Amino acid sequence: MIMGEKAAMLPLMLILNYIMLVSVAVAQTNNDDFTALVSLTSTWQNKPLNWKGSPDPCNDGWDGIKCINSRVTSIRLTGLDIKGELSEDIGLLSELETLDLSHNKGLTGSLPHSIGNLTKLSNLFLVDCGFTGPIPDEIGSLKELVFLSLNSNSFSGGIPASIGNLPKLNWLDIADNQLEGTIPISSGSTPGLDMLLSTKHFHFGKNKLSGTIPPQLFTSEMTLIHLLVENNQFEGNIPSTLGLVQSLQVVRLDDNLLRGHVPLNINNLTHVNELYLLNNKLSGPLPNLEGMNQLSYLDMSNNSFDESDFPAWISTLKSLSTLKMVNTGLQGQIPDSLFSLSKLKNVILKDNKINGSLDIGDTYSKQLQFIDLQNNKIEDFKQQDMAPSSLKIILVQNPVCEESSGVTKGYCSIPELSVPSSTTGKNCEPATCSSGEVFSAHCKCSHPYTGTLRFRTPSFFDWGNDTSLQERLMHTFQFCNLPVDSVSLSIRDNYPSLEFTLQIFPSSRDYFSQGEILRISSALSNLTMDAFYFYPDEYEHYEEPTESSKSSNAGFIIRAAIGGGSSLLVLLLLTGGCALWLKKKAEKAIQQNFPFGSGDPIDSNSGIPQLKGTRRFFFEELQKYTNKFSQDNDIGSGGYGKVYRGILPNGQLIAIKRAKKESIHGGLQFKAEVELLSRVHHKNLVSLLGFCFERGEQILVYEYVSNGTLKDAILGNSVIRLDWTRRLKIALDIARGLDYLHQHAHPAIIHRDIKSSNILLDECLNAKVADFGLSKMVDFGKDHVTTQVKGTMGYLDPEYYTSQQLTEKSDVYSYGVLMLELITAKRPIERGKYIVKVVRKEIDKTKDLYGLEKILDPTIGLGSTLKGLEMFVDLAMKCVEDSRPDRPTMNDVVKEIENVLLLAGLNCSTESNSSRYDEVSVQFSPSLQQ
Length: 930
Hints:
This protein is of the alpha/beta class. Among the domains are: 77-212, Alpha-Beta Horseshoe (Leucine-rich repeat, LRR (right-handed beta-alpha superhelix)); 438-536, Alpha-Beta Plaits, CATH 3.30.70.260; 615-703, Phosphorylase Kinase, domain 1 (2-Layer Sandwich); 710-929, Transferase(Phosphotransferase) domain 1 (Transferase(Phosphotransferase), domain 1, Orthogonal Bundle), CATH 1.10.510.
């Protein structure tokens, strides 16, 4: 009887063991993260539909959840009408890098103090929710934070001084809340916002902030671009220190209680293109803004300035598009030179004392659309019969309109100003769409995703039409591979609070899925961050996921059984119908954990990919070749792991790069990296010989490059000494290698981590680019948007860092830093000084060697003439331009360095492209596009 029972139990025991093994493979989300995520969202209403019945967030692709190596790194759940609170459990997601819960008005309550536990958080977006209470001081613990957007909530209390402790913060948006008090300034050990030297955006508008704008807030070391403090209760003077921040582009001080004179040095802000001083109590003479040649939008209306003639300096503002000076004490005649400004569109000068004749001249701007001079003292209009019909002129309540000639004059009435409106669907054949459906531009009936675009500044009114905006939106959706057929825009007539109604139409069917809505919201969030906000409407046309797309509830049962020991219940439920599900899940887990298949790497019929010139090594082999990875063979280390020297049986030296456990990628990502490296072949790139993927190891085997890194050679940590001509040749080698990646690999490859420690020197001191662990493949000529910035500080392209938009010009910037490192032997950031800024400050083109002798590396050979140094420095500074379009391509760099070598009297042996590059065809790999 006992033997019979054992025999009967044997199949059940085998099934239980199988279930337990598979559940480990299937349940790929880290248990702590899974528990935290379930606890965090347990009381939420309106969670994503595909969470229902899906047992594992990472493995089953929960909408809005992104994982790396089983850890939850991103939560993006925008515009789902989620209701509930953000509980303290958010602090348990220790690997979280992005949290975006924007546009969920039903998310209420205070922001939990445990938010400070998310020490890896770089992006926090809680826009347009219902949060209340103070912003917690613990925000100041998030040292990795780059973007902080808490705007459009009901936060109260003061601005936390601890925000000043965030060294990487680029974007600070706390607008449209109920914040009170003053702007915190550092004092002793107490931090303040004046410490945010790297922050480019201060968005504080539409609050109840008061007191003075502290002079200590501004210094010449700041990189601030936007200062938006409109609609508050600030009083006192505009601090003169504002003129020190010459990086500013938009300044909004409007709708406050500011008094006194505008600082004389405000015209130092030569990069400002929008300046708003309206609706304050400013007095004294009108500020002289001469020299602000990038100023496009100027509004100083409704202040208490001294009466003055129309200032001559206004006619010198070459970029001026809109001029608004309502009720500012202007008098005298407007010079016709004002209207000849080539970009001028709108002139609004009503409620002043302007007199004489209105003369727009014969060379007035072809952009001119609107002149409003109501309630002035103008007696005549010279071009009344010649002004184009497209130009709207209003002279109501001027003497010129009080004559009783009996002739109706168009400029003596207030016209209805037409605003642009989308024509989407208006040219479609008559047809009836179902309830709630709308015609798209392509005459398809569907349920559009709708919302409001609300602009930060009214200057968008100068665009005049919505065509460019529609094109920009469609380009973004197409680039992100979103199923969007077309977009429709219609302006809401509530200027200056400019808003558009946006409709986004689906292409593949008549509705969007919830996952697609989340992706569209994310794309709009990235696109609109700088110019406007997107406020979505609730979308009610989702369809429940089909049974085929759902995962069975068995996953939850497995977790419960493993945790609670209810094995018999699991067996009864799973023995029958779940067998096939388990098999499929097991196969999927196996593929994730061993993506290379199985079999003999030498056998062409095996499942292992046949990679050109690349073979699979077994772990035992590599142990043998390195004497069990002995310390004697350790030749270097980095963030990824250690590098060992090895010797193959035929005597060939190899370099073996062994990943640390915490640096190991997912299997598919490692496979993609191997396949990429096996396809790139160039004499200035380190060649991949093989790989090892077993026993939990990820190992890459490279050709051995004997003379170490360029970093060691430059810093004198090796016996190698590099003279001027050798450095030029090394610079050319690196440039050729990068030019190959950018121009001759298909698709293009962006290295992302060019630095001296990733350049190796062979026995002839030829340079080879190494370490492709961060490389990305992209469509050539297109921007590649990435959610996570990678690279090395000091070499990192600042535009990539701030915009998270990666192009080949990011490699060009890093290469430019490397060029400066080559001639100075200084690290990119040394003792708090950035090499780019140091060189830029020291350059004096009137002197020999550009006056750089004191910072040049003395071992470069200063006793001899450094022919071509000036050309080399000029090229380096072009490579590190802040704006990407101003940087050269790597192909241009190659040609320029070849010219420098010729100037130095050396033939650089330039080969033709056809012989120099080994053309390859690299296929896109999804894991490298993330």
